[in-house]
Amino acid sequence: MARIVKLADARELPFWRRPVTLLFLMAMAMPVAFSTWSALLNNFVIEVADFDGSDIGWLHTVREIPGFFAIGVIAIIMVMREQVLGTVALLLLGVATGITAWFPSMGGILTITMLSSIGFHYFETVNQSLQLQWIDKLRAPQMLGWILAAGSGATLVAYGLIVLTWDALGLTYNTVYMISGGFTALVAIFCYLAYPQFEAPNPQVKKMILRRRYWLYYALQFMSGARRQIFVVFAGFMMVEKFGFKVHEVTALYLINLVANMIFAPLMGRVVTLWGERRALVFEYVGLATVFLAYGGVYWFGWGVVVAATLYVLDHLYFALALALKTYFQKIADPGDIAPTAAVAFTINHIAAVFLPAMLGYLWLVSPVAVFVAAAGMAIVSLLLALLIPRHPEPGFETILTRPAPAAAA
Fold first, then answer.
1. Partners of 6 in the beta sheet?
2. SS3 assignment, position 199
3. Each residue of 329-351: pLDDT tens digit?
4. Residue 410, pLDDT score
5. CA distance between the termini of the chain
6. Domain with 320 in it: what CATH number?
7. Is 368 part of any domain?
């Protein structure tokens, strides 16, 4: 039987067995599989299965279906601890990524994508919940920035190896997928066996909850999911389809993103601490709207590959500020609501993701510019919503439309 350790007692454990160390380890393992899968995906599906814009849209729609059903995490944690579910989901992601190249047909790619996506989305749901439960509110922005940087550092090593060895060693898709997925699977097994089960002081509500006072958080999550899909699906696809990027060139672009993330993610955490969630998110959404409109300019005005690649890096950097959305919720939430709301929020985040990639895939065939203009519009809507966040959000003062309860008389 697994050993259960209260969070307050975990400080007595060796540093490498503490909760925050586990969060860092899982944060470094997950993107090795997922980011490698993403880096190779566009070249893999175009070269092996002859995908066009519509096909890639359908693939990402299938990939997002498990995210829509992330609410199922609530049912699973009734019989399984969150920490265990996280390691099992991480294992599934690793195994599914490892065997991706074994199924080079449209049907095979969609099937294996569904399996890896279940692992990814269920892991991310639980991981976000554990981060907010295990990290103190005052340290959260900075610590989340460091965790993001750690994940970028691990992926940097993987991408660096791809760039240096893809042509030199004549690597195949199967080899790279097997190595990256196998690494993630082995780390998942280690995390399950080497760490005790940590128990947070606040028991989590194990049922679906929708609280009216969280409405702004839900709305921002919905817009975040819709907007993110256009970057994930079409920004990278543009680099391959329009500019003919090869695997090592796409991966080199990812490497630049990772180095930038390693440098700036901790700074983003510091920015959120100093500015507050409202100003950080406003800055993010203004930047994203500008970048998406510039993407349209790449097609409309014929701007070259250097402009497109620069926009891709800036786009990725702005998304790092999304940690402000996590800390906003942490500040307004009841401690016991974190796990069920993480699952509900993940589902809300993926409502648009289920239909948007396929729908916009058809629009892409007609006008790539229109796709990016739509993304800019979504960023502007997010900006308007972010303006409703108070400077110092707290329970009872979740938006500027409410007011904090008056202090009790002495």
1. 199
2. strand
3. 888 888 777 777 777 877 787 77
4. 37
5. 50
6. 1.20.1250.20
7. yes
Gap between the Cα atoms of 245 and 170, Å rounded: 17
pLDDT of residue 384 exceeding 90: yes
Q: What is the pLDDT of residues 294-338, one digit of tens each?
A: 888 887 777 777 888 888 888 777 777 777 888 888 888 887 777
Residue 136 is predicted with a pLDDT of 79
Burial 219-241 (b: 16+ CB within 10 A, else e): ebbbbbbbbbbbbbbbbbbbbbb
394: phi then psi, degrees, rounded to nearest 5: -160, 165
Tell which residue, 88, 158, 155, has the closest CA to residue 123.
88
Give tens-digit pLDDT for 112-164: 888 988 898 889 888 888 887 888 777 777 787 788 778 878 878 877 777 77
CA distances to 103, 172, 234, 244 from 248, rounded to whole Å, are 22, 12, 19, 12
Q: Which domain holds residue 220?
A: 7-386
Q: Tell me, what DSSP letter sits at residue 401?
A: T
What is the number of domains present in the chain? 1
At 27-77, the pLDDT tens digits run 889 988 888 887 787 777 777 777 766 677 777 777 777 776 767 777 787
Of 52, 171, 70, which is closest to residue 126 (Cα–Cα)?
70
Give the tens place of pLDDT for each residue, 285-295.
999 899 889 88
Q: Is residue 408 part of a domain?
A: no
Which spans in 236-367 are helix H? 236-241, 247-275, 277-300, 305-319, 323-332, 338-349, 351-366
Give me 356's structure tokens: 């948007």
Residues 257 and 252: their CA atoms lie apart, in Å, by: 9
Measured CA angle at 106 (ends 102, 61), to 5 deg: 110
CA 94 to chain centre: 16
User: pTM for this one?
Assistant: 0.70
Residue 131 forms part of a structural domain:
yes
Per-residue b or e along 73-107, where b marks 16 or more CB atoms closer than 10 Å to that residue's CB: bbebbeeebbbbbbbbbbbbbbbbbbbbbebeeee
